Amino acid sequence: xxxxxxxxxxxxxxWPVLPLVDGKNPPLQFVHEDDVAKAYELFLMNxxxxxxxxxxxxxxxxxxxxxxxxxxxxxxxxxxxxPLLGMLWKLHLTEFPPEILDFITYPWVASGxxxxxxxxxSPQYSTEEVLEDVLKNMPARK
Length: 142
Hints:
The protein has a two-stranded parallel ribbon with strand order 1-4. The chain has a single domain (8-136), classed as Rossmann fold (3-Layer(aba) Sandwich), CATH 3.40.50. The two termini are 20 Å apart. The chain is mainly alpha-helical and 142 residues long. The chain is built from seven helices and four strands; from the N terminus they run H-E-E-H-E-H-E-H-H-H-H.
């Protein structure tokens, strides 16, 4: 993520109210676009031959993201929200398919330890810093 990336979260954070699917508050992890570029460059220079997780430092919960974005959270049961979003998707009234709800319902966290140990990659930005960069560069904060 970052100020120039067109991403699900950057679109979602423009909504005036954000859903807590089934009241869940998963930890999430973001990596900055500059860190991704740095990792690719490092891996190419080192002729890396393995697979690595490129992740940001630390995690942040979905509720914390909602608060930092200055939004209101609404608890919505998944059995209501998923079919509703599915219907809106089929009618071309939303840019999000219902499967995207998994990204705010379940934890999305990985370890970057292997990339650091084997290739010396360590992200410059924490997950919180990535979020702040995205929020300050959003075209409209409602």
